[in-house]
From TrEMBL:
Ranges where the record places region Disordered: 238-263
Keyword field: Disulfide bond, Hydrolase, Signal
Molecular function per GO: carboxylic ester hydrolase activity
Compositional bias per record (Low complexity), positions renumbered to this chain: 238-262
Keyword Cytoplasm annotated: no
Protein's name according to its UniProt entry: Carbohydrate esterase family 5 protein
Organism: Monilinia fructicola
Residues in the signal sequence: 1-20
SUPFAM superfamilies with a match to the protein in the record: alpha/beta-Hydrolases
InterPro entries named among the record's database cross-references: AB_hydrolase_fold (IPR029058), Cutinase/axe (IPR000675)
Length: 281
């Protein structure tokens, strides 16, 4: 297991490397108009986890859009995910989000990007997109690790059950009037807050102070269509409108895998290298 100091050194070396990745494709011919990044919750199997509900809604509404899952441990010390501590999983996850987004944006600078994070997946996307550090998990650097050009192309970000939730921020939705177990500090303001919707209800024990774990797993069903409406509005403001009628939150569609286009395939090769070199879960 890495120390926090080692993990943060790895974090910034990956970011520096990702910004220098060569382009091996003709971006004009292969880049999609929209690309969605999804990050799963703690202990969910590799892939999108519950974030997949909203990811699929977006893909159904925008044929031709592509997507990929963030590769990170999504662990909280459980043996099922390699015993990686929650703090180390978050630090690795923030680095993975930044590396994936930066790499894709470097290769496809005109593609509009959407972030969808669930629970711990919301936390790592929040940290990567808004900066400010995450002292709860040992991430002390407050800089935004996603490069400025990529931040500009992120048109919408959806966080559901995010432990960083704290009541009072402009982009929060739901009945929670308290905070999660890893809240943003009082007075925090995300520079890209107008692009975010963060969903949390009072009964949730992770993003709020409730006691019903089932509430934590239900945001895709409860707020999926509302989240899609926000994403569509953000994309429309930048020149892209949905072309199909959205399916219900429970509909399962096949998302575009990272290996189906030149852009996504290179991104997957990059993350596979990280996985082997740094022994990530």
């Amino acid at each position: 297991m890495f120390s926090r100091t080692t993990l943060q050194a790895v974090f910034f070396s990956l970011l520096a490397y990702s910004s220098a990745l060569p382009s091996e494709i003709d971006t004009r011919a292969t880049c999609p108009d929209i690309h969605v990044f999804g990050a799963r919750e703690t202990t969910a199997s590799a892939g999108y986890g519950t974030a997949g509900v909203v990811v699929n809604l977006i893909l159904n509404a925008h044929p031709g859009a592509t997507s990929e899952a963030i590769v990170y441990p999504a662990c909280g010390g459980q043996s099922s995910c390699g015993g990686v501590s929650y703090a180390n999983s978050v630090i690795q996850g923030v680095a993975a989000v930044a590396a994936a987004v930066n790499s894709f944006n470097t290769q496809c600078p005109s593609t509009k990007l959407v972030l969808v994070g669930y629970s711990q997946g919301g936390q790592i996307m929040d940290d990567a997109f808004c900066g400010g550090g995450d002292t709860n998990e040992g991430l002390t650097d407050t800089r935004i690790p996603i490069q400025a050009s990529a931040v500009n192309m992120i048109k919408a970000a959806i966080f559901m059950g995010n432990p960083r939730y704290i009541y009072g921020l402009s982009y929060e939705v739901g009945t929670c009037r308290a905070q999660g177990f890893a809240p943003r500090p009082s007075g925090f303001s995300c520079p890209s807050g107008s692009k975010i919707k963060s969903y949390c209800d009072a009964a949730d024990p992770y993003c709020c102070n409730g006691s019903d774990a089932n509430t934590h797993q239900g945001y895709g069903t409860e707020y999926g269509q509302q989240a899609l409406t926000f994403v569509n509005a953000q994309l429309a403001a930048s020149g892209t409108s949905p072309t199909t009628t959205p399916s219900s939150p429970g509909t399962t569609t096949t998302t575009t895998s990272p290996g189906t286009t030149g852009v996504a395939h290179w991104g997957q090769l990059w993350r596979d290298w990280i996985h082997g070199e740094y022994n990530l879960c």
